[in-house]
Amino acid sequence: MVARTGLYTLLAANVGVVTFFFVQAGFGASNALIVLGRLAGLYGALLMAFQLLLVARLPWFDRRIGMDRLTSWHRWVGFSLLWMLVTHAVFIVFGYAQASSMGPVDQLVDLAETIEGVLRAIVALALIIVVGVVSARFARRRLAYETWHFIHLYTYLAVVLAFTHQVAVGTTFTASSTAKTYWYILWGVALTSVFVGRLALPLWRNLRHRLRVTAVVPESDHVVSIYITGRDLDRLPARAGQFFLWRFLTKGRWWQANPFSLSAAPDGTQLRLTAKIAGDGTAALRHLKVGTRVFAEGPYGAFTTLHRTQPDTLLVAGGVGITPVRALLEELHGHVVLIYRVATDQDAVLYDELARLAHAKGAQLHLVTGPAAPDKLAPQELSRLVPDVADRDVYVCGPPGMTTAVLRTLRELGVPKPQIHAERFSLAG
């Protein structure tokens, strides 16, 4: 809660600062469209810097806010940024066209030819539009994760082009040394955060821990567990419930990064991930050789015991979303109830292992099978399985549809929001 409030406050404060510097610099044009376009451009630049902070994957934010929420914010900020920059471009072009009596297309060409930095801004906007289109749900469902990720990398080029455009023509850069210092600090913090979180920290951790595959164990026809060891794993800040982006450094896979949760609590000597075979990329995991080098980014996620508020816990997992929940079960203290929702008994990944672990910890394990409808975790059914659900912390991890339905049930049963912790397994699994 503190981290979320801090981010909201930070963004609101910077909106105020940007508005103040804009007014202080003077409108610089009698045309209202140009004035509004310039203000939209400044807000767009601020959103772009804030977006960099969201994608930096800084451990402090990630552990307290969670990748799910950061990803959701990233999506909303991204589309807000896109529309803010489109508004900036349209208002500026039509404003100048109105003042010069030129057509909008001719005016755009004239601005690109006569004003330094405008052409770079056009290219930046085009790149951001492409990224926005491929991030829309209809396109995202049709793209492989690696393709979508590769296209997203062009955002960094757009950021550089947009920044140089702002330096060249931004009124707050030319009218005030204080405002100029502010913008340089803002962009410097944002870009440094990305460098540290996305490059420096992962490189340092992998050089330190030197991860390698030690075993590949088929759990079923469609599920495989991979055991990984390395140096000084007791100093790797990983917790049960978190996930990594894994790269297995073989000839055909070194460039692919896939998110998989830890399926066992880290013990300082080895890590384990368990993956469902869902395509060519995950199918290749079965054929990894012992000794294969591993490059891991993480750990990520706030789906941990760090946020517990009650002594007892309810764990709800769906499908292969059981993997972080199984790790949590190993770490949790107090009375635990685990509900595992699958279509058939054969879909219950790691069930024998879960049963043994639940017995050893005195936990209750409920395997709920059957089709999605009727909802077997509706309020009446869930309260029958766990009568004291409102007095427990509840961890939910599974497919987005199941997770949404369970969260709705928990709200209807009056479970306080601070006691609910969710991970939609579209990213972490």
TrEMBL record:
Residues passing through the membrane, by range: 7-27, 33-55, 76-97, 117-139, 151-169, 181-201
Cross-referenced Pfam families: Ferric_reduct, NAD_binding_1
InterPro entries the record matches: FAD-bd_FR_type (IPR017927), Fe3_Rdtase_TM_dom (IPR013130), FNR_nucleotide-bd (IPR039261), MRET (IPR050415), OxRdtase_FAD/NAD-bd (IPR001433), Riboflavin_synthase-like_b-brl (IPR017938)
One example GO MF annotation: 2 iron, 2 sulfur cluster binding
Primary location: membrane
Cofactor: FAD
Start and end residues of each FAD-binding FR-type domain: 206-306
Keyword Transmembrane helix assigned: yes
Protein origin, superkingdom: Bacteria
Cellular localization per UniProt: Membrane
Keywords noted in UniProt: 2Fe-2S, FAD, Flavoprotein, Iron, Iron-sulfur, Membrane, Metal-binding, Oxidoreductase, Transmembrane, Transmembrane helix
Topology class, membrane: Multi-pass membrane protein
Key word Iron present: yes
GO cellular component: membrane
Name listed for the protein in its UniProt record: Oxidoreductase
Species classification: Bacteria, Bacillati, Actinomycetota, Actinomycetes, Kitasatosporales
